[in-house]
Amino acid sequence: APASDDLGQQARVSNDLSEPPSASDDLPREPLDCAIADKTFCAVLEVTDPYRRANEERGLGLEVTRIEAGNPLVEGSDLGLDISLPAYDAYLAVSYFLRDGTVHHVLSGRSWRWPANAREFVGDPGLGADQSGNVEMVVAVASDVPLFASPRPPAEAAESYLADLRTRLAEMSGANDSAQIAASLLVITPAPQQPS
User: Fold this and answer.
1) Looking at the predicted structure, is the pLDDT value of residue 61 above 70?
2) Dihedral sign of CA atoms 36, 42, 45, 49 in order
3) Which residues contact 43 (CB under 8 A, 6 or more apart)?
4) Nearest to 95, CA basis, from 155, 31, 48, 173
5) How much is the CA Rg of the chain, to the nearest whole Å?
6) Which of 1, 16, 77, 151 counts the most CB atoms within 10 A of its CB?
7) Which residue would you say has higher pLDDT here, 63 or 65?
8) CA atoms of 132 and 59, how far apart (whole Å)
């Protein structure tokens, strides 16, 4: 398996930079080429790819950055986020994917509609010290309709969540009045292990 700090470099998104997804598109148009062993990491990239591309290509403005500068994540450092919302009123879902195959939801994407171009600061996600070092990536999805009709559990299996997310995003994109959807992710690189 590749070293964790190589994950972002080894996961390659297709170079198809055509129009963003619309109701008439089959999602995704081209399969994602993910040359790493971590299937959850690859699944997150695949599910969010059309919406990350739409965010970038159309300049929608959704962006996730760490409050505390620097990557890798060192033990005891804050995993707080600075999130710039897109250029449309949106519901915001923020989830932390851990290396153990779980996903922890910080914002649900259903209870509050943020104004266009707002900023949100997400503090400590409530993960214990043993879990915060295992965060692999943070994913934000902003849509002009709630992401899910009912609340997700605070933590769940990433595989189950990603299957539901894939289905829901396809429903939202394929509706007669298709939703505006943007996605952004932040890959977290763990600090090198100190010799004991």
Assistant:
1) yes
2) positive
3) 158, 159, 162
4) 155
5) 16
6) 77
7) 63
8) 31
Euclidean distance between CA atoms 196 and 183, whole angstroms: 39
Return the structure tokens found at 117: 């171009």
Q: Is 148 exposed, middle or buried (0-12, 13-18, 19+ CB in 10 A)?
A: middle
Cα–Cα distances in angstroms (integers) from residue 47 to residues 3, 53, 155, 157, in the given order: 23, 11, 19, 15
**pLDDT above 70 covers what percent of the chain?**
66
Classify 53 as helix, strand or coil. Answer: helix
- pTM comes to 0.76
Any idea what DSSP says for residue 116? T
Tell me if 94 sits within 8 A of 111, measured CB to CB: no
Beta strand 135-143 with 90-98 is antiparallel
Q: How many CA atoms, within 13 angstroms, populate the side-chain half-sphere of residue 160?
A: 8
Q: For residue 4, what is the DSSP state?
A: G
Average pLDDT estimate for 114-119 = 95
Residue 108 phi/psi, 5-degree rounding, is -85, -20
